[in-house]
Amino acid sequence: xxxxxxxxxxxxxxxxxxxxxxxxxxxxxxxxxxxxxxxxxxxxxxxxxxxxxxxxxxxxxxxxxxxxxxxxxxxxxxxxxxxxxxxxxxxxxxxxxxxxxxxxxxxxxxxxxxxxxxxxxxxxxxxxxxxxxxxxxxxxxxxxxxxxxxxxxxxxxxxxxxxxxxxxxxxxxxxxxxxxxxxxxxxxxxxxxxxxxxxxxxxxxxxxxxxxxxxxxxxxxxxxxxxxxxxxxxxxxxxxxxxxxxxxxxxxxxxxxxxxxxxxxxxxxxxxxxxxxxxxxxxxxxxxxxxxxxxxxxxxxxxxxxxxxxxxxxxxxxxxxxxxxxxxxxxxxxxxxxxxxxxxxxxxxxxxxxxxxxxxxxxxxxxxxxxxxxxxxxxxxxxxxxxxxxxxxxxxxxxxxxxxxxxxxxxxxxxxxxxxxxxxxxxxxxxxxxxxxxxxxxxxxxxxxxxxxxxxxxxxxxxxxxxxxxxxxxxxxxxxx
Length: 481
Fold this sequence. Notes:
This protein is α+β, with helices and mostly antiparallel strands. Helices cover 44% and strands 19% of the residues. A hairpin with a 2-residue loop joins strand 1 and strand 2.
């Protein structure tokens, strides 16, 4: 007998995935999800076409190493802002999860949003839940063939347009459209349009809930952020059990029945196919479709709503929920501090930066007039949206002269320019290396300036002192040879 049980259990591991046919429901939470999905899809598809100050409002121009975001231009030197932003996103997810569970999954996750869109297209072409189930079981016919074909055309069109829009954030979308019309896209553009389109088609069209259940890591570690005061979707077992069918208006409580009529609409409406009445499960994405389904049944039966509802474990147990608790306070304080710091850093970032590198071929050279000259390679980074001409000066070096070719270095908007800078000064009292500051100032906007530290190497005024100096002996020896 035990061998038979083991054989059945072993076979169960390899049972084919049963397709989930989510039932369409109406209600307050369905309306919220529709508003969220429409807004997010509208932002994704529409923002790529907006222009700001001559550029796409959001454009990650990788070949040019320039990133345009709402009028701000970022260069690779600003990469730490991306790291900062990712940390903010992660902490925001933790904070929201500790407060309200998996609301992100149910209302804003790309997998949920695009799956919703694909299910909507499926409903347009194949009908409601019962019709779709009947159509899949029916033999092939003209009706089935044209409905399936129409669905595939809509799915593929939406998937390809999604891939096109995604690539449009890295290649100007108007240029990309012209290239596609003339069949002149590059190999990488073609690859990413097709790849992202195929990923959308597969994930939202076929994998759907399997992505949430098996592929998404968030479903696995979310429980670490839950506690008794986290908002979750719960089934009120004390009120609903024992469940059972009954006629409307009958005295079911006298028969020992609870409010649940065991209609299974909550299961049919669930996009991941779980039964919320079995308790909280990691597959639940908190979309509240089961709440809308149950509330509609309660209304028809003239029972009180809330048999399935958003609540907390503490509230179900009869205790008062606490929004302010150590976990949420810590997340909130850290998140608030990081957000304020991020906004401050963005609004006060330096629009001009310089990188200074000494000439490695020689420490210095002695000019005919006895002055000592050091040569530097300077890179000027202009992050402003306007071009500027920069001139250079030196601090912390007495009687210094600065020469560059040209004297005014023109740097276009959001570009980097390089120039050879020659700094000369009379031999210093103490030879060796000395710290100096090289300053680049915009001639048309003096407030735009960048300061970089550098080392200036010089002979000593007193050669004997130089020869005996431990700090400069190596440099003097090099000059002598």
